Amino acid sequence: MAGPNDIYVTLTRYIFSEYSSSTTVEVINETRSTVTCLCFFQSSKMTRGRLGKGFMGPLLVADMVVYLIILALASWSLNNYIDGQQSHPHLGGNSATNYMLLMALLAGTTGAVSIIVGLAHFLSWSVSSMAAAISTAAIARAFTGLAFGLAWKEIKLGGRRGKRLQTLEVLIIVSTLIHLLYILLLHAGHFNQKYGPYYGERRPQDIGEGPSHEARKSTGNEPNQPDA
Questions:
Q1: C-alpha–C-alpha distance, residues 50 and 48, integer Å
Q2: Which residues of the chain does CATH 1.20.140 include?
Q3: CATH architecture of 49-195
Q4: What pTM, to 2 d.p., does this model score?
Q5: Cα dist. 186→41, 69, 109, 110, 198 in Å?
Q6: Nearest to residue 137, comparing CAs of 169, 170, 107?
Q7: Rounded to an integer, what distance in angstroms lies between the CA atom of residue 60 and that of residue 65?
Q8: Within 10 A of 178 (CB to CB), how many other CB atoms are there?
Q9: CA-to-CA distance for 165 and 214, rounded, in angstroms?
């Protein structure tokens, strides 16, 4: 990646060749300040939040695996319930099972979608992608919380519950904890920048002031034409 000096030299040559001498010095000074600030922002962005990003990668993988298994088990169980096969050796259940399966299916679907958005945020690691990741994660957390409550009610009511139904209950409880950690990690940058981006972070155009209004007005969009 080109450094500030390389970019500055290239822009200086362009300015000398395109603009008149009356505005060259002012434009060069403004350009040098802008290039230095932008390069500093890019460098700080590359090193920012490495600790949080290191935690988020494995957490996303674990959360995705759990949600996909929940989605598979809930789909299979609900399909058997619709077909009237509640007496299946791996199924069983009680009066709370129907509601729990519906919520588990919604939790698995929204959870998998939120992890996909989270992977996009993991790759871009910016404030704009963080907003989408937090929004989808909050929706998935709401459905997962509802499924958790119904799974706990199903466990409390007892009765015969097959191995797959018991596995689904355990995974719903596990996903509730993992997804909560994921949401906390998304917000960790608000407390310490080494954990990731945060709302209110300054954009590159806010760090460097760039060419002043007078310089832009004097240069315009086209180079000055020599007098006839």
A1: 6
A2: 49-195
A3: Up-down Bundle (1.20)
A4: 0.66
A5: 21, 24, 20, 17, 9
A6: 107
A7: 9
A8: 20
A9: 71
- Compute CA distances 53 → 63, 96, 136, 187, whole Å: 15, 39, 18, 12
Residue with structure tokens 């989408």? 132
Q: For residue 212, what is the DSSP state?
A: -
Question: Can you tell me the distance from the alpha carbon of 125 to that of 163, in angstroms, rounded to the nearest whole number?
Answer: 40
List CB contacts of 215: < 8 A, sequence separation 6 or more.
23, 26, 27, 30
Q: Spell out the per-residue pLDDT of the chain, length 228, in tens.
A: 555 555 555 555 555 555 545 554 454 455 555 545 444 444 444 445 566 678 888 999 999 999 999 999 999 999 988 888 878 877 888 889 999 999 999 999 999 999 999 999 888 888 888 889 999 999 999 999 999 999 999 999 988 888 999 999 999 999 999 999 999 988 876 766 665 666 555 544 444 444 444 444 444 544 455 454
At residue 37, what is the residue type? Answer: C
Q: What three-state secondary structure class fits 226?
A: coil
